[in-house]
């Protein structure tokens, strides 16, 4: 019942958990969970039974075959770790990322990581966390909102960025967005003019915001900059620093 973590997962799939903040914790969990069930691909959360266990799925359920994961390939010992140990490892990893100034908050680190990469690649100055509508500025005062998604199964719903708010007010000049592969490698990145975002975004009344899908067609829009190489280079330079 970690509502902070729930809100982070909800934001990743375009659900505004704050809408239910007036409810008690259990009701928040139920309402947000019901929304996520309609948005999250089944293959993201359905896992095969552990060795020695039998599956306990309803007759209508389908067992999804998973490709080998990062966990199996690089950290197989984590399969035997307790839930508490895994949570402590996650917290320690995020704390170390904060020490290195790769992320700025204790939330799910993907968004902070994307902000860090764009700032390093283009020399932008990141705003304070409380800034509204944009995340960074360049030396000309141009404002950028930065979004990221991690593609686990490369299905359409995974391309939906976090909710954009106040879009008609033009709180940002460009949307800087990056897609990561399941192993957190930079897959594609783009800088998208505000007008192009407006032309493709859809208003979602119940979250009081706009939904934007970072589809491959976005890179074909006039004025969109493909900055994949620059963001990949920033990621490689960060890794090569070895935590210094």
Explain what you see.
It is a single chain. The chain is α+β, with helices and mostly antiparallel strands and 244 residues long. Strands 1-2-3-4-5-8 form a six-stranded mixed sheet. Helix 1 packs parallel to helix 2 and helix 6 crosses helix 8. The two termini are 36 Å apart. About 5% of the residues have low confidence.
SSE order and pairing:
Layout (H helix, E strand, L loop, with lengths): L2 H10 L12 H15 L2 H4 L24 H5 L8 H17 L10 H13 L2 E2 L9 E2 L5 E8 L23 E7 L5 E8 H7 L1 E3 L4 E3 L13 E2 L1 H13 L4
Parallel strand pairs: 3-4
Antiparallel strand pairs: 1-2, 2-3, 4-5, 5-8, 6-7
Helix pairs in contact: 1-2, 6-8
Features:
single chain; 8 helices; PvuII Endonuclease, Chain A
Global outline: globular
> Which structural class fits the helix and strand makeup?
alpha+beta
What is Rg? Answer: 19 Å
So how many helices? Answer: 8
Name the average pLDDT.
Answer: 79
> Total number of β-strand segments?
8
**What are the segments in which pLDDT stays under 50 over at least 5 consecutive residues?**
54-66
Enumerate the strands of the largest sheet in spatial order, edge to edge or round the barrel: 1-2-3-4-5-8
Binned, the helix content reads 25-40%
How does CATH name the architecture of the domain at 109-240? 3-Layer(aba) Sandwich
Question: H/E order of the elements?
Answer: HHHHHHEEEEEHEEEH
End-to-end gap: 36 Å
Assign the CATH class of the domain at 109-240: Alpha Beta
Strand content: 5-15%
Largest pleated sheet: 6 strands, mixed
């Amino acid at each position: 019942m970690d509502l902070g973590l729930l809100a982070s997962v909800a934001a990743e799939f375009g659900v505004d958990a704050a809408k239910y903040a007036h409810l008690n914790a259990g009701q928040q969990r139920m309402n947000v969970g019901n929304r996520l069930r309609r948005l999250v691909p089944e293959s993201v959360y359905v896992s095969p039974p552990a060795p020695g266990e039998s599956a306990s799925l309803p007759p209508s359920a389908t067992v999804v075959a998973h490709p080998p994961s990062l966990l199996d390939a690089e950290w197989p010992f984590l399969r035997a770790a307790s839930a508490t140990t895994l949570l402590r490892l996650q917290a320690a990893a995020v704390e170390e990322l904060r020490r290195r100034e790769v992320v700025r908050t204790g939330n799910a680190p993907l968004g902070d990581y994307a902000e860090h990469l764009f700032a390093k690649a283009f020399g932008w100055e990141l705003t304070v966390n409380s800034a509204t509508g944009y995340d960074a500025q360049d030396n000309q005062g141009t404002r950028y909102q930065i979004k990221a998604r991690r593609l686990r199964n490369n299905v359409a719903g995974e391309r939906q960025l976090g909710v954009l708010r106040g879009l008609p007010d033009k709180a940002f000049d460009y949307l800087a967005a990056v897609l990561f592969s399941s192993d957190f490698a930079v897959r594609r990145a783009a800088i998208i003019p505000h007008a192009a975002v407006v032309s493709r975004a859809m208003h979602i009344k119940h979250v009081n915001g706009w939904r934007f899908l970072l589809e491959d067609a976005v890179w074909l829009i006039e004025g969109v900059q493909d900055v994949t190489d620059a963001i990949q280079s920033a990621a490689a330079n960060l890794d090569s620093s070895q935590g210094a």
